[in-house]
């Protein structure tokens, strides 16, 4: 049976799987696709017995699966549970993996809360184990250690700025404001450099009976600040709740023997939210046939609203409450921007003139670094609240999912 549950397995890929696994594909089921890779559960019959495997193939150039395979091989005997790499083919941009037991839909509705808490605690212990590994002992040639603590964030900032530049005026003015703050406030300390998954959390691990059976999707892993992985868990919590973040971070601190630096977690949460929002925007600006525009728009809206709110957290100001819903977002925007900039609402005829006025104001030091910075941060948080309200039907249950405050327990 080929292609049950979704897109069929391409013939060339099928032939490669059979050659690599030494048997015949008897069943393939398309897995939920990510933004960058297609995936299938595959059963290969070898000497009369089915062998459960999992295959990933990049949708576009970039080498994500090749990087994933190198990291997985380096972690094979680390104590961090990962799938075995059966085969990898850079030319096909594909990797063939063992299929681990367990499910990825955490938290599952049919799992008792106590079991979910057990699984989440185990994830934090494994995240600590990952960060305890000595990068110099890992054979991952495409990764290099940062030269300075500041470099842990600078690569991500450069990636985000590149996306913003490519989008041009299609990038919301918020991103220029946020990137300026992020660049001016890069963390200057780190206790140790670690292998960072960079997208850690629900959806990227398998679990069974209260234990994590495997951590997957290592294509963007790098050496950096361990606090970035805690930020990633906090981000994924919005779409897939993982319980109290204060409790999760306490479990991590207990397992690692090191305190959690909430200030750096705050920073990386804002940075990754801004970067990911821009990267999704780039995908929406250049969609392929496989692009699910509605789903990507939904996630971008969730992330950019969160980015504006957690930037307020970073600035030490209270998050604005949701504005009263209005049938006309443009009218509310016009009034808000006119008050912010001290100009007549009549000068803001449409969305383009509003954005032009914002960009002009953001070019001044007063808005970017001065006393008005908090006013602009509050405005952008209200702006993104209004955007989410306009797309409430698209967001569905995610409309209510705001980023958890980061506080010590």
Task: Walk me through what this model shows.
The model is unreliable at 1-6 (pLDDT under 50). The termini are far apart. The radius of gyration is 22 Å and the shape is globular. It contains 14 helices and ten strands. It has helices at 11-21, 64-74, 113-132, 151-167, 173-184, 227-239, 245-256, 262-285, 293-315, 329-341, 351-362, 365-368, 373-390, 392-395, and strands spanning 2-4, 24-30, 37-46, 49-58, 85-89, 94-98, 194-196, 205-208, 211-215, 222-224. The chain folds into two domains: 2-98, Phosphorylase Kinase, domain 1 (2-Layer Sandwich), CATH 3.30.200.20; 113-400, Aminoglycoside phosphotransferase (APH), C-terminal lobe (Aminoglycoside 3'-phosphotransferase, Chain: A, domain 2), CATH 3.90.1200.10. With 409 residues, it is an alpha+beta fold. A six-stranded mixed sheet has the order 1-2-3-4-6-5, with helices on both faces. The chain has a two-stranded antiparallel sheet with strand order 7-10. A two-stranded antiparallel sheet has the order 8-9.
């Amino acid at each position: 049976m080929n292609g049950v549950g979704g897109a069929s397995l391409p013939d060339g890929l099928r032939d490669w799987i059979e050659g690599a696994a030494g048997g015949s594909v008897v069943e393939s089921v398309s897995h939920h696709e990510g933004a960058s890779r297609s995936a299938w559960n595959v059963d290969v019959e070898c000497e009369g017995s089915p062998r459960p495997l999992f295959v990933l193939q990049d949708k576009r150039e970039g080498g994500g699966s090749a990087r994933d395979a190198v990291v997985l091989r380096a972690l094979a005997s680390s104590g961090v549970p990962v799938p075995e790499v059966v085969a990898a083919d850079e030319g096909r941009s594909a990797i063939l993996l063992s299929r681990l037991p367990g499910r990825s839909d955490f938290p599952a509705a049919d799992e008792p809360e106590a079991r979910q808490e057990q699984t989440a605690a185990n994830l934090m212990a494994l995240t600590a184990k990952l960060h305890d590994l000595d990068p110099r002992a890992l054979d991952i040639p495409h990764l290099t250690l940062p030269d300075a603590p500041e470099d842990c964030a600078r690569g991500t900032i450069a990636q985000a700025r590149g996306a913003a530049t490519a989008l041009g005026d299609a990038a919301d003015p918020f991103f220029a404001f946020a990137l300026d703050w992020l660049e001016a406030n890069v963390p200057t300390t780190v206790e140790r450099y670690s292998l960072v998954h960079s997208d850690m959390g629900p959806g990227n691990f398998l679990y069974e009976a209260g234990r994590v059976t495997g951590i997957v999707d290592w294509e963007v892993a790098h050496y950096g600040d361990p606090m970035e992985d805690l930020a990633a868990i906090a981000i994924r919590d919005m779409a897939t709740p993982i319980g109290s973040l204060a409790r999760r971070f306490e479990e991590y601190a207990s397992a690692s023997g090191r305190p959690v630096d909430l200030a750096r977690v705050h920073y990386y949460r804002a940075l990754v939210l801004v970067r990911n929002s821009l990267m999704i925007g780039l995908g929406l600006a250049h969609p392929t046939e496989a692009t699910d525009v509605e789903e990507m728009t939904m996630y971008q809206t969730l992330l950019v609203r969160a980015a504006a709110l957690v930037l307020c957290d970073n600035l030490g100001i209270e998050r604005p409450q949701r504005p009263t819903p209005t049938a006309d977002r443009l009218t509310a925007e016009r009034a808000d921007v006119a008050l912010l900039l001290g100009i007549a609402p009549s000068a803001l005829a449409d969305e383009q003139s509003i954005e032009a006025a914002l960009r002009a104001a953001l070019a001044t030091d007063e808005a970017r670094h001065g006393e008005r910075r908090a006013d602009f941060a509050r405005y952008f948080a209200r702006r993104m609240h209004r955007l989410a309200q306009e797309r409430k039907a698209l967001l569905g249950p995610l409309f209510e999912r705001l980023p958890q405050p980061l506080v010590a327990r």
